[in-house]
Design a protein that fits this description.
Length: about 270
């Protein structure tokens, strides 16, 4: 089957799990949970430039073929036209995709104010006080566990900052390959958002049931945070408190004043 690869990325806690669940209702689309495919592809690709070149004659064509076939082969058992692979790293690897996969990538990127993303993580930390990856790392580094340190870790060294950097890189160099989806727009008008995704990837229109969502089977224990990918199955609801009530006004102002939402400015 001639499958069409699509990528799902952006900032965490911004609706990508919800989008995946909706996309999986479409008869022609398969959307993955958080995918390991890039790590496998990257390992094979780098092997040609490291230990293997000491044994075999290096071939760029062979390297590209092996890299591309690994991605395609990973989903060859799925009988769907559109394969949506989810990973935060894809926006920063657009050049890599073009050079090695031999197609123009389309990346759906979910975004949200960074202060709200941080607040969402803090809420989960409070729900998992005895065991969550943020507090566990702070403990290992003998840091005080408070919301300021939690936010600083997530932004400077953790998944929030790394995801933002990946998105910024892709937006700055290959904006036309990205479809930016605002979290609040997903909540306010999910049907419109799904139509925009269908148009972006070239899929036919489908009537989604937003009141019958199927949870994505993520291994949250591996990610280090229980409930990280939970979604409401009976409709799309706005449940979170204002970010400043969760992380505190000082932290809220600090991250908002950094003007991190470049995707709204129309320029870098």
């Amino acid at each position: 089957m001639n499958q069409i690869p699509i990528f799902l990325s952006g900032l965490p806690r911004s609706g990508s799990t919800l989008i995946s669940s909706l996309l999986n209702q479409h008869p022609d689309i398969h959307a993955s949970t958080t995918s390991h495919i890039f790590s496998l592809v990257d390992t094979v690709y780098n092997a040609f430039d490291s230990n293997m070149k000491t044994v075999y004659k290096k071939s760029d064509e062979q390297k590209r073929n092996a890299t591309a076939s690994l991605f395609k082969g990973s989903y060859s058992h799925i009988n769907k036209t559109y394969i949506v692979d989810k990973n935060r790293v894809w926006p920063s690897r657009i050049k890599f995709i073009k050079e090695n996969f031999d197609f123009e990538p389309k990346i759906i990127c979910c975004v949200r104010d960074v202060s709200e993303v941080l607040a969402s993580f803090i809420t989960l930390c409070e729900k998992n006080k005895d065991d969550n990856f943020v507090d566990n790392i702070l403990k290992e580094n003998n840091s005080v566990i408070n919301n300021t340190n939690r936010c600083r870790f997530l932004w400077k060294y953790g998944v929030v900052g790394e995801s933002w950097k990946s998105l910024f890189s892709g937006y700055n160099t290959n904006k036309k390959n990205l479809l930016i989806i605002e979290y609040n727009d997903i909540l306010d008008n999910p049907k419109h958002i799904m139509k925009s995704i269908e148009k972006f990837i070239g899929a036919k229109h489908y009537k989604y049931d937003i009141n019958n969502l199927v949870p994505m089977k993520e291994h949250d224990e591996f990610h280090g945070m229980k409930g990280l990918h939970d979604i409401e199955t009976k409709g799309i609801k706005r449940l979170s408190k204002p970010a400043y009530e969760i992380i505190g006004m000082e932290n809220y102002n600090y991250y908002n004043n950094m003007q991190l939402h470049f995707w709204r400015e129309g320029k870098i």
